[in-house]
Amino acid sequence: MIEKKICMLGAFAVGKTSLVRRFVSSCFSEQYQTTIGVTVDKKSMTVDGTPLTMVLWDLYGEDEFQKLRPSYLRGSAGYLLVLDGTRRATLDIALGIQERATDILGPVPFVVLINKHDRRTDWDITDQDLTQLAQRGWSCLMSSAKTGQGVEDAFATLARAMLVPSQAPSSGGKTHGS
Amino acid sequence: MAQSSKAGTTPDDLDYAELRNLLLAPEQTRLEQLKERVEHIDLNAHNLSRVLPDAIALRGENDQQLTHVLTPHVSEALGVSVRRQPQMIVEAIAPIMMPAIRQAIANALRSMVQSLNQTIEHSLSIQSVRWRIEALRTGKPFAEIVLLHTLRYRVEQVFLIHAQTGLLLAHAAGDSVAVQDQTLVSGMLSAIRSFVQDSFGGTPDEALNTLQVGELTVWIEQGPVAILAAVIRGTPPESLRVQLQDTLDRIHAERSEALTRFTGDAAAFSSVTPLLEECLRAQFESPRRGVAPMTWLLALAALLAMAWWGFSAYQERQRWQTYLTRVAAEPGLVVTASETEGSRYRLSGLRDPLAADPAVLLQETGIDAGRVEAKWQPYYALDAAFILKRAGFVLAPPSTARLSLDGKGLAVEGTAPADWIRQSRILARTLPGIDKYDDQRLVSRSLGELRRQLTEASILFEPGSSRLASPDQLHTVRRISEMLRQLDDMARVAGAGATVSIVGQTDVLGGADTNRRLSEHRAQAVLDAIQPASFPALMFETKGIPSSAEQEGPTGAGASQQHRRASLDVAIQPAR
């Protein structure tokens, strides 16, 4: 059984922990609980016939007070970069995080998740922003931890990218969804 | 070239050939050899054998194809070989297997002894009672209480973790240890280490190496690529840290390439699990090298019980032997077979009906009769005591007769009735073990006794009378008749004859002639009264003896009734 370390990255309160819970336990809670430090979880799945265990490091969300610690990120085979569609500021933070992650990890696969798609009407992030992200060659997906939309896809996409090292970095660069 | 010369070619041709020979001879020879080899390059066994080992080695270096191809054939060949010659494989693997088996058995025995030791100690001591009370009070299992009190330290789990990714490479846990999800534990351990190092540690060397949680301690050893984390209950000694570090170093040395190339597949590290298991050590308080006192006590009790049992068995056996000896010594009892079956005995033999009762003998020896199964067949014992006893039982002699045994001859003495004598002569012949029966002395004594009784009897008469009319006279006559009947009978038994003289007497009163006649009449009267014809074996005679004045004493008692009587005299004629 192959195991891979995956990090959940993004600004605070974008829904990283909720996404992990939805993915691992298929549940969701409206109550917000901030992550202090890191929580480790795991999920086994089969990708294209290859069994894989993803060890998910759910890191605390970055803000002006807490920056990403390289030591948590080290050894990660890939990461999910999570944005909150209703807060445009999370996009800028994500861009910064991606740069530092690339510095630390090198060109490892990652998937950008614009979360809270269930509140699409409240989104600050525009289609133009999404287009710009896609132009960077990043793999972008819409997701909702509340409804489960796009969650399995996001992890499966990242898993596929990790199992095919030759296709790294940034796995394709195609924007999914609208 | 030699052919060209013989053909008579021109000198130029010869020169050319010579030149060519000088310049190209080595190459030409080499060409000939190569030509020869190319023309006969077919893959025969000889050629193949020269290149086969190199070819296999060369092919094996590139990939695993050769292994895949050969594996089923080699496996099948090995299977066939083992089936045909199993002894061969036994001999081959025995030197490898036997030490391992010996070690496994030794470990199992040591573990069993230790477990027994602890069980006995912890189940019987005062301390264990206290711990049981504590277990009841706290609601914890007794085993856990014992562990808490006796455990110095125990390594419960060992994790080998890839340092950079925090992924688990290998894991080992002790028996009956509650194990959480190892992947998550190793991930969180790495995360905590990172957090601590980021927050407090300055350099990589100052990483977190100890965690303390209640009674659990986690020791973390850092290697270049991997870390080793040991979860320990209790207080471990520093030497354990050295062992952990040694183990980690060894894993780095042996699996350095796998560690470097690790991308998530931990299968390559399954072989290091035994190394981790070696770290699962435990040490208990006051370790006992010897055997616990309670074990000694129990062993002593067992020994005493065995000794008691052995002594009882010995005593029982002795009792049985004593019984057999007694039975063997007892006349009229013969043991033909005896056997012991556990605590039961079987006995078979012969028993004279007159012999002592074996059950009574058994009771005297103290053996439980219920454990003895005896079968006695009846028989006649020919011991002297038994012959005599049996003779007495069969013949039932009167109290005046006594039996005695001389060799195989039975003799009888004293006096007895003629009927008994006659009957005994018949019965004595049927008695087993008796060849001769002698009753001569009995007969002669009986005859003598009858004679004595007869001579003492007398019939008294009235003065001047020879009549037998009074009741006393008639009674005496009947008594004498009875004695005569016995005498007659006895004489016939003895084959002897007897002459009975009836003597009549008178007192001194009266004339001599008168008295003479009177005396004769008195004798005759008695003879008539007793009817002599009824006694064929006896002869009778009568005579009168009158008393005279000269016979009287000075007292003048000659006229007394005692002189007016008739008496008997008996003469026995021995058998001819």
Task: Characterise this structure.
- The complex is a heterodimer of chains A (178) and B (576).
- Chain A has helices at residues 16-25, 70-73, 89-105, 127-135, 151-163, and strands at 2-10, 38-47, 50-59, 78-84, 110-115, 140-142.
- Chain A is α/β, with parallel strands linked by helices.
- The longest helix of chain A is centred in the middle third of the chain and has 17 residues, at 89-105.
- Chain A starts with a strand and ends in a 15-residue tail after the last helix.
- Mean pLDDT of chain A is 86; it is low at 166-178.
- Chain B has four domains: 132-284, Beta-Lactamase, CATH 3.30.450.70; 295-378, GMP Synthetase, Chain A, domain 3, CATH 3.30.300; 384-438; 445-573, 2-Layer Sandwich (60s Ribosomal Protein L30, Chain: A).
- The termini of chain B are far apart.
- Mean pLDDT of chain B is 83; it is low at 1-7 and 553-557.
- Chain B is built from 18 helices and 16 strands.
- With 576 residues, chain B is of the alpha+beta class.
- The chains are: A alpha/beta (178), B alpha+beta (576).
- The interface between A and B is medium-sized, with 20 and 22 residues.
CATH topology of the largest domain in chain B: Beta-Lactamase
Shape of chain A: globular
Q: Strand content of the residues of chain B, in percent?
A: 15-25%
Number of helices of chain B: 18
According to CATH, the homologous superfamily of chain A is: P-loop containing nucleotide triphosphate hydrolases
Instruction: Output the strand order for the largest sheet of chain A.
Output: 2-3-1-4-5-6
Helix content of chain A: 25-40%
Largest β sheet strand count, sense and barrel closure of chain A: 6 strands, mixed
The chain-level structural class of chain A is alpha/beta
CATH A-level architecture of chain A: 3-Layer(aba) Sandwich
Q: What's the architecture of the largest domain in chain B, going by CATH?
A: 2-Layer Sandwich
Tally the structural domains of chain A: 1
Radius of gyration of chain A: 15 Å
* Element-by-element helix/strand order of chain A: EHEEHEHEHEH
Structural class of the helices, strands and pairings of chain B?
alpha+beta
The largest sheet of chain B, given as strand count, sense and whether it forms a barrel, is:
6 strands, antiparallel
Cα separation of the termini of chain B:
163 Å
* Overall CATH class of the largest domain in chain B: Alpha Beta
Care to count the β-strands of chain B?
16
